[in-house]
Amino acid sequence: MVPSLAPDRLGFPRQYRLTKTDEYSSVFGFRKALKSQHFLLHYRIRSSSDVGDGARLGLVVAKRLLRRAIDRNLIRRLARESFRVLRPRLMPRDLVLRLVNRPDSLDRKALAKEIRNLMQKTMSNSW
Length: 127
Description:
Blueprint: H1 7-10, H2 21-30, E1 33-35, E2 39-45, E3 56-60, H3 69-86, E4 93-99, H4 108-124
Parallel strand pairs: 3-4
Antiparallel strand pairs: 1-2, 2-4
Helix pairs in contact: 3-4
């Protein structure tokens, strides 16, 4: 028998996702981003009038950069896991992680570390 796990601890609930085109547009329109070797992390500070609290995440992994769906899904899984672990410490911001450069190799540990470092920069900056 498998023990029941709390869905809010292991999942990526809808309240922590950017789901609508307008939400993505507002983050891109804010024109603030952090850059790493393969990713751009766009962000927008959430106002107190926004519904809900905490950080929300949106992902953009273009097919032109990674042709195979399995590779795009790997990037998404790594990003969601990093976000899930760091979310309680993140400021209330809307984040969009976008793949901008094709990785030479899909080294899971290196990509996960790069994503985690970008998200941690949002915790240390007071912008």
